[in-house]
Amino acid sequence: MQIVLKDFTKTFDGNTVIDRMNLTVEDGEMLALLGPSGCGKSTTLFAVCGIHRVNGGQILFGDRDVSNLPSQQRNVGVVFQNYALYPHMSVFENIAFPLTVRKDSKADVDRAVRDIAELTHISELLERRPGQLSGGQQQRVALARALVRKPDVLLLDEPLANLDAKLRLEMRSEIRRIQLETGITAILVTHDQVEAMSMCERIAIMKGGKIIQIDTPKDMYSNPRTSFVAGFLGNPPISFLKGRAEAGGFVLDDGSLRLPLPVASQIPDGTDLTVGIRPEHFGRAGDVPISGKVIFAETQGRENLYDVALPDGSVLRSVQPAQDDVRAGDSVSWKLESAAALVFAEDGRRL
Amino acid sequence: MRTRSYMVGLAFMSPALVVLIGFFFLPVVLTAVFAFTNMSTSTGISGGSYVVTGNLLTALKENGVPVEIADALSKASFVVDPEGIAKARDAGTDPAFLAEIEQQLGGRTFTDERLFERELKTLQHRPRSIRDLKLAVDQFELSILNSRFTSESAARQAIATFLPSAPADTVDQIVEASYTGWTWTTANFKQLFSTSDTWRIVLNTVFYVAVTLSFTVFVGLFLAVTTFYLPAGAASAFSMLWLLPRITPIVLYAVMWKWFTWEGGFLYTAADALGLPAFNYMKGSVPTAWTIVIMVNGFIGAAFAMILFSSALKAIPVQQLWASEVDGASRWQQIRYIILPHLRWPILFVTSYQTLSLLSSYQEIWLTTNGGPGRTTTVWALESFNTALNSYTGNLQYGLGAAMALILVIVGVSLSIIYLRLFRFDELLGRPKIEF
Ligand SMILES: Nc1ncnc2c1ncn2[C@@H]1O[C@H](COP(=O)(O)OP(=O)(O)O)[C@@H](O)[C@H]1O
Ligand SMILES: [Mg+2]
């Protein structure tokens, strides 16, 4: 089922949190709402499921306008950030709850619960109470409860935020597998770019209640529309150099570094620019040599991470295959791939 | 380490222990002690003495003391002995007359006052006035009736000299019955278990507690849930309103109910205007009296229950309520399946706490219907208060009242134990979270 938000607006006590947002989630697609905390992701999600009423605009499921329907009538499944399982019910009763309240027959409920429990791999936990489950198991129960009545839409609010790293990895692929198996349209709210990139077809990146860019993970990474998007995606993150345009290239403010940039040819000399360089584009290979001092070195086993301070004080990050010839405090002369550099105007727009 | 933390725990608890012993344990012990006595206003609470009264003799005759012995006790006799002479001298009788009495009549006993008087009149130094003669006669009177003996042996001896022929067990019975102080007895309990009035009051009490409690829990729940769904401002105003019964001084609250329900009161006037039966609802009929007793107490409890339920409601994670809504639960289903289960402990708590306080409370009933009409709304606590501390006849029966109170304490403690089991209190009281 396609979800469409048209000029969706939400205010809390006269304070506009979301202002005329437009968003389309295609049928069967899993879309990530990605952004820093407080940017309005949960608010959007809660408006879609009807917990919050919209203050303006429309929400459509297919061609059905659900803007003014109570959440009971929207047929959405929601997984809340803290799972919101009912502590006084067994796992079975929790999962069965959406079916019991609509008074399905006992046999139907039983069959549906056992089917979904199998899909989510919790068949052997049905008699337990939520308090007796681990975080990952609770997560699966919440997912089963959201899916049991075959909702039109699945909404996930930071579903992995409370899990440890290993479980997070496991549940990431689990949720994706279940979403693909059921073919359900899903919105995943997260502040973690890795989650968004690994689980979703498309990412809508939000900031301050606005969607900045909607794209596939790959396009969003290589082709960010603003410096905010570029900074948000990528781990380790991109590093930025501040400087100005000069003779079809970019120079640092103290004139020490000069980068030839094709886009800079149309820019008047002296314009303030920011250049973003991802860590994988700074290292032993490249076309522009850069000297600096390693101020931080860290190994992650397979790769090493370095922060290199340039003479003017700006810092470039580099990620390289693990080797131990360079330590913090060493002076290095490495190279930069100027073709991969991302150029942003002073207001953050990509040029 | 273990003993140290034990001692610290004890030190923390000691003020509570002192209070517990002083305000809970001692009263219960005293109640238990009083319950096995016949203390009342007439016996006093300190010791007594031995007095044979006319009433006592009537009672003794009914309890198998031979009529002739009882009658003999009620008679007076006149004995001329040195004691009588001394008494008469103190009373101011002419010494010459006294000397003559001693000489002429010394050692004689008269069973009839007139005979003795006639004998005295024959004496030479007899006084001129009849009044003085009577005064002298009185001094020689020897009577068991209404004389006070401070010890049991004195009483026994007096009776024995008065009735030398009486059998020993009869004398024992009389001596024992003549004691005016309190004695140990189980008669209070026998009396309670044998009167039909007791069962009537027990039934009243059970009815009162059960209905008031249900009223409290249901109204409390209703108020808490409705305020929960109201906007914040309206909710706090609404709950303040319902708190009034709890915070109004009880006397004022009772008076307000009187204004509300008595002749000429609000309800009366309203009913009158509408052509409905108008009378003093508080005392005029049994159903209205019960209704008012239950509401008076129920609203106080409901205010208390509302506070507890409201705070428990606020503690429900809002995501659970949201989840239930997106899961399709209607408002009613939300209350039934999410909210009520979360209120389980507060409901149990209010039930147990209110059972105990309703069982032991009488002030509200005392100040409103005062157990009437008749004794239809009299409950156990009120009856024991009236028996022990508030008798119309002026004879306060401390012993009987204490026996009633003791039964109430036993019922209360048993119920508490049952409720604590229900609460699984031991689970709540796990190991201390902080180690010393
Ligand atoms: N119920 C509410 N009342 C008032 N303000 C709210 C409410 N819920 C969210 N907000 C505000 O809306 C903004 C977006 O919140 P939210 O959607 O929860 O952010 P996030 O992207 O972290 O999920 C925040 O500034 C938050 O303070
Ligand atoms: Mg959020």
Automatic annotation (TrEMBL), chain A:
<protein>
    <submittedName>
        <fullName>ABC transporter</fullName>
    </submittedName>
</protein>
<dbReference type="GO" id="GO:0140359">
    <property type="term" value="F:ABC-type transporter activity"/>
</dbReference>
<comment type="similarity">
    <text>Belongs to the ABC transporter superfamily.</text>
</comment>
<keyword id="KW-0472">Membrane</keyword>
<keyword id="KW-0997">Cell inner membrane</keyword>
<dbReference type="Pfam" id="PF00005">
    <property type="entry name" value="ABC_tran"/>
</dbReference>
<dbReference type="InterPro" id="IPR012340">
    <property type="entry name" value="NA-bd_OB-fold"/>
</dbReference>
<dbReference type="InterPro" id="IPR027417">
    <property type="entry name" value="P-loop_NTPase"/>
</dbReference>
<keyword id="KW-0547">Nucleotide-binding</keyword>
<keyword id="KW-1003">Cell membrane</keyword>
<dbReference type="GO" id="GO:0055052">
    <property type="term" value="C:ATP-binding cassette (ABC) transporter complex, substrate-binding subunit-containing"/>
</dbReference>
<dbReference type="InterPro" id="IPR015855">
    <property type="entry name" value="ABC_transpr_MalK-like"/>
</dbReference>
<dbReference type="InterPro" id="IPR017871">
    <property type="entry name" value="ABC_transporter-like_CS"/>
</dbReference>
<dbReference type="InterPro" id="IPR003593">
    <property type="entry name" value="AAA+_ATPase"/>
</dbReference>
<dbReference type="InterPro" id="IPR047641">
    <property type="entry name" value="ABC_transpr_MalK/UgpC-like"/>
</dbReference>
<dbReference type="InterPro" id="IPR008995">
    <property type="entry name" value="Mo/tungstate-bd_C_term_dom"/>
</dbReference>
<dbReference type="Pfam" id="PF17912">
    <property type="entry name" value="OB_MalK"/>
</dbReference>
<dbReference type="GO" id="GO:0005524">
    <property type="term" value="F:ATP binding"/>
</dbReference>
<dbReference type="GO" id="GO:0016887">
    <property type="term" value="F:ATP hydrolysis activity"/>
</dbReference>
<dbReference type="InterPro" id="IPR003439">
    <property type="entry name" value="ABC_transporter-like_ATP-bd"/>
</dbReference>
<keyword id="KW-0067">ATP-binding</keyword>
<dbReference type="InterPro" id="IPR040582">
    <property type="entry name" value="OB_MalK-like"/>
</dbReference>
<dbReference type="GO" id="GO:0008643">
    <property type="term" value="P:carbohydrate transport"/>
</dbReference>
<feature type="domain" description="ABC transporter">
    <location>
        <begin position="3"/>
        <end position="233"/>
    </location>
</feature>
<keyword id="KW-0813">Transport</keyword>
